[in-house]
Amino acid sequence: MTDFSSPKGVSRRGLLQGATALGTAALILPASVRRASAEPKRGGILRVAQASGSTTDSYDPATWDSQFVQVLHTARCGYLTEIAADGSLVGEVAESWEASADAMTWTFKLRDGITYHSGGNVTAADVVASINYHRGDESKSAAKPIVEAITDIKADGNNVVFTLNAGNADFPFIMSDYHLPILPSSDGKIDPMTKDGCGGYIIDSWEPGVSAKLSRNPNYWKTDRAWFDGIELVSILDSAARQNALITGEVDVIDPVDRNTVSLLERAAGIKILATTGTQHYVFPMDTRVAPFTDNNVRQALKYALDRQEMVDKILGGYGSVGNDHPIGPSNRYFNKDLEQHSYDPDKAKFFLKEAGMDRLNVQLSAADAAFTGAVDAAVLYSEKAAAAGITIEVVREPNDGYWDNVWMKKPWCASYWGGRPTEDWMFTTAYAAGAPWNESFWDNARFNELLIAARSELNEETRRAMYYEMQDLCANQGGTVMPMYASYVMGMSDKVAHPEVVAANWTLDGFRAIERWWFA
Amino acid sequence: MNVLITLFWIAVAIAGAMAAGWLFRAAAVALTRGGTARALRTAPVTAGFGMLVILLYVLVALFAPLIAPYAEREVVGAQFLPWDSTHVFGTDNLGRDTLSRLIYGARNTVGIAFATTALAFAMGAILGLLAATVGGWLDQILSRIVDILMAIPALIFSLLLLTIFGTSVPTLILVIATIDSTRVFRLARSVALNIVVMDYIEAAKLRGEGLWRLITREILPNALAPLVAEFGLRFCFVFLAISALSFLGVGVQPPTADWGSMVRENAALITFGDVTPLLPAGAIALLTVAVNFVVDWMLHRASGLKE
Amino acid sequence: MSAIWTMIAKRLGLGLLTLFVISVLIFGATELLPGDLAKNILGQSATPETVAAFRRELGLDLPAHTRYLNWLLGAVQGDFGTSLANKRPIADLIATRLGNTLFLALYAAAISIPLSLMLGVLAALYRNTIFDRTANALALSSISFPEFFVAYILIFILAQSGLFPSMSRVDPDTGFAETLYRTFLPALTLTLVVTAHMMRMTRAAIINLLASPYIEMARLKGMTPMRVILHHALPNALAPIITVVALNLAYLITGVVVVEVVFVYPGLGQLMVDSVAKRDFPVVQAVALIFAAAYVLLNLTADVLSTLSNPRLIHRK
After folding, report:
1. Are residues A414 and A515 in the same domain?
2. Euclidean distance between CA atoms B31 and B50, whole angstroms
3. Does A378 map to a domain?
């Protein structure tokens, strides 16, 4: 069986039940919780407080970057495909899809009878225009690099045909990216500022940086979704204020929970904590072109000089798991279970330093909480532990402002994070392939690059697995990225809020879709 | 009942503080001689208490490495350990000893705050008095520059400057001092304006006193009281500025301990009824109260009131 | 009196000049900040091509002086343009937030100014007594706590018990009484933050005058201490008090971003911080100018009042 052709001819519901083989990503709840979340029912206004949201947020899908807009617009819009709670891929606007034998041509068949809030039907031309908006020279879209492999999009009756510049077995996954909503078009162009969409909720009002109010789309095509009558999204930037809002009952769900005080919040009455462990991970990428990081021995020494478990305990409040210096998590399909786990070992670090011809190492590590919450603290812990291996890490706290522009991929060693990608190829291509715009360690490993291309169009499951296993090994033992931990998404909610047994872990808030997947008990 | 017990302990604390202040004054009077001793004898008990606290802070700041049970940045255990005999005030979010961080915090925070305030007053007061005395175009230019600087909100302005120039300690001191000095300038100028129209200034000018002498001998002594009062407050605003800046993501470089950032890091605990963040906040408050008690005494002496 | 009017006219003219200089300064500062809107909106996902395309679309590829002049031309005609980030007209963006900011500032001022003047006068009257010391120590402790910390403590005491809401969410439809109720905690926080400064200045300014011969004279005439202070000391102590009150009022309008964040109150401070972070230059300019104008006007009022309180200044040669 090839993993990409399965959706053809299988009903959506059948797929949901049949595709759990991929689904170690999701959270399986204990039986006691399961009973409580029994049958979904309609009604109520869900109030969600999130830590992001800025007065500069916009309707334009090219610019979506913060959780607030991601959740808001996922509720408003439909996408070609959707990542189900169990990690498998299901159709949304597309009913099914099939690929040519070389995985270079993909045909998506659109679902009948999906309408926009304004009334019109979703057409193949809309899909073409919606994806084209992110392509081409004039595109300013954050999603441009991920649609760059598309050389042509054509509407063909009720089908949309994509032609790629190389085979990609995981292409339909890319079409679920949050930047790529299907919007109404005219003359082959979408209006990026439109408030229209074909999702389960209609935006009634939105004051960027403050709050948004949505009401249920009465004509929504999914009959087993969108249980709430209305939604209120609030942005509460301060973590203590967010917790207070939940404790005093002014909101029903908060995301994220401050990991420093999560243990105290757990004890509060009427409040439950939901954590999902997916692909989100925190990294300290080194610029492998700059001394001393050019020497793999130095990189290996640094990988043995941090206490990963301590970081999980202290930075994540226990809500996460240790990383192994490659971006593929236990929830991924081809996670390498046999790879040796890097752990804190000052002697080994000293050994590698000696191999590099040094007794002591002095390096600077730049961090700001813009990279991830607790990045500065994590760097401080790193520096404390590394001292035992003769490594002096000077932590440089950079301003949050302009961090991605000024520090990331500019300073030789800094903190960064990845929400993760649903497929191995997507993740490696984005951040580890030589020449990729976001290859944050500027790593260029010939064997790795060769495997990446080969694995992308490899249809034999076992061969493909072996390739990805080797790539993880290369990344972990030769790569330029220290990856201390996978961070769970930690949400707090009133116990009146119910959710399905399986909660998606690809993004926070049930893959940004809590609004249409959850209900009031 | 709880209220009564709290009130009782507050009363005990106040009585204890007064007793300590009284003893300190007595000791100070005994140890000094001449004018100082005479001045000290007139000091109220509160001023004695204030001086005692300041002295203690200075000692703690100077001898931090000797007093602190652990090193400033040392990770000694799990995070948020409760208060017990090994870690008197528990541990912080990274498992560092809170007491040790408080003690080192005295050194860093008080040092930064003092340097900043002193610099701000040196710049602000001199320019302010000069502007008021000379008047004319100098006054116009300085006042307009200060107007412009002050019209940009302080917090946002310092955020901008720190983002542009980085957040090392010297930059932090310079930026906050510059912004603070505009406030001092306004006050110094407005107080001095009321003085320069006095007859004795006119007389001094007629005597042919130089500008510098006029400012330092005639105007400054008479403008000193409100300036000293302002000093006591500005001092504490520096802590607050650092704390607010760390709230917005710029502040003192880790792993340096400073009270403003410590309040910020642990503040959320208070909403669960945990009093740990009150420690650094209380340390700032105690110092502020102490400094201002001494300031009040000096103000009283400066006013020449005999009562 | 005409001297006062000339002064006001002169100062208003200078105020306009100040605003102009500030607009140049703010523009310069946003230019000095690393990155521009395109880079900051795209954040970690920015690539050189998309940033370049974004810049072209927004006109950020034009030279700095052209962009500034274009903005200035619009601004003098009353058109502050649209937000670069989400294309909303700046007037819309600012209108409700300005209202919210002014409301909260006035609310806090209405509590704190009478309170601090009263406490200041009483502390001067009963100087060096237990009352004076306690009032001082309490006021000083309350300003020694960072704003967000005061806010957390108030939330812990007053919101978790259900007396007041922990979030001050208001919209234009909220009634006046309801708005007063919902914004009570932020107003109280701000009161605690500004009272000590004004109270201590009042106290200090009055005490500073108490040794003056004319006060001595009033006292010798057998006036009650309260009357001496209210009728003789206070009028002459007004100048520094007014200056400090104006400073604090300006602070209440321009400096409360931290309180806005904690109480989720949509004011101008948050708008300014967000816009600076994303380099949304037209919004930064508009908010900065509003803040500056508020400051200039308050300052002018303070100076006029100080001058009126001291006749010698009016007739200064």
Report:
1. no
2. 18
3. yes
Q: B248 or B227: whose pLDDT is higher?
A: B227
Is residue C30 one of the residues assigned to a domain?
A: no
Which chain B residues are within 8 Å of A314, Cβ to Cβ? 78-79, 93-95
Tell me the chain A residues in contact with residue B73 when contact means C-beta distances shorter than 8 Å. 380, 384
Q: How far apart are alpha carbons A375 and A284 in whole angstroms? A: 9
Minimal CA separation from C142 to chain A, in Å: 20
Q: Which two tokens stand for residue C113?
A: 């100014």
Mutate to test the interface with C, among B6, B42, B139, B152 (most CBs of C within 10 A): B152
C6 lies in some domain:
no
SS3 state of residue A129: helix
A508 and A392 within one domain: no
Q: Which of B266, B259, B300 is nearest to B105 (CA)?
A: B259
Q: Which residues of chain A have a CB within 8 Å of the CB of C277? A: 54, 400-401
Find the CATH number of the domain harbouring C196. 1.10.3720.10
d(CA B99, CA B111): 18
The phi, psi pair for C168, rounded to 5°, reads: -105, 60
Res B306: pLDDT: 55
User: B71-78+102-302 in CATH: which number?
Assistant: 1.10.3720.10
Question: Structural domain boundaries of chain B?
Answer: 71-78+102-302
Domain that holds residue C285: 91-314
- B112 pLDDT more than 90: no
CB of A361 within 8 A of CB of A298? yes
Q: Do A305 and A380 lie in a common domain? A: yes
The ipTM of this complex is 0.83
CB distance C256 to C60 below 8 Å: no
A 10 A CB-CB count for B255 gives 23
Domain that holds residue A107: 2-198+491-520
Q: What is the pTM of this model?
A: 0.85
Q: Is residue C244 located within the same domain as residue C117?
A: yes
Contact B267, A243 (CB under 8 A): no
Q: Do residue C110 and residue C60 come from a single domain?
A: no
* Interface mutation vs chain C, best among B271, B275, B286, B287, most C CBs within 10 Å: B271
Chain A: residue whose CA lies nearest to C54: A140
Number of domains chain C is built from: 2
Residue A17 has pLDDT above 60, yes or no: no
Asked if C149 lies within 8 A of B299 by C-beta distance, the reply is no
User: Is the same domain home to A464 and A505?
Assistant: no
Kindly state whether residue A215 falls inside one of the protein's structural domains.
no
pLDDT band for position C87 (50/70/90)? confident
Please write down the HEC assignment for all residues of B8-76: HHHHHHHHHHHHHHHHHHHHHHHHCCHHHHHHHHHCCHHHHHHHHHHHHHHHHHHCHHHHCCCCCCCEC
Contact yes or no for B81/B90 (Cβ under 8 A): yes
Asked whether residue A396 falls in the same domain as residue A495, the answer is no
Tell me which residue in A57, A137, A211 faces C86 most closely, judged by beta carbons.
Answer: A57
**Does any CB of chain B come closer than 8 Å to the CB of residue C273?**
yes
Q: Are C29 and B164 in contact (CB under 8 A)?
A: yes
Min Cα distance B5 → chain C (Å) is: 18
In terms of CA atoms, which chain B residue is nearest residue A265? Answer: B272
Residue A203 maps to a domain = no
Tens digits of per-residue pLDDT, C217-254?
888 888 888 888 888 888 888 888 898 899 899 989 98
Q: How far apart are CA A514 and CA A275, in angstroms?
A: 13
Per-residue pLDDT tens over the stretch A23-75: 334 444 444 444 445 688 899 999 999 988 888 889 999 989 889 999 999 99
As given in the structure block, the two tokens for residue C304 are 């006029």
User: What CATH number did the domain enclosing A382 receive?
Assistant: 3.10.105.10
